[in-house]
Amino acid sequence: MLQHTISLNQNSRFRALYARGRHSAGGRLAVYAMKNRLKDTSRMGITVSSKLGGAVTRNRIRRRLRECYRLFEEHTVPGWDIVIVARHGAAASDFAGLSRELRAHFKKLGLVKGAEADV
Fold first, then answer.
1. Higher-confidence residue: 79 or 119?
2. Could you tell me which CATH class the domain 5-109 is placed in?
């Protein structure tokens, strides 16, 4: 169960993040983030293109990314809208690789609490 995050599922919020949010991209993932008006709650959405594979592959990537975020959520700052976009490298990547890259993107975007920035 996620502590301070709810699902982001409004197309208008996704488009606003793509247009105006901060972003960080790598070989496996791209992460977009923007402050929201909810002080204690973050909203997170995951996008996996059909170009990455069939439904089984896409859902596996989604589950892995959701779990990576869940394990790292206690170290993140609440009050952000976040979209994680899986790229071509995500389909062949293992869980540890996805987790490492997600944490690196979060640190780069300033979504990690101060003392835990070295986690």
1. 79
2. alpha beta
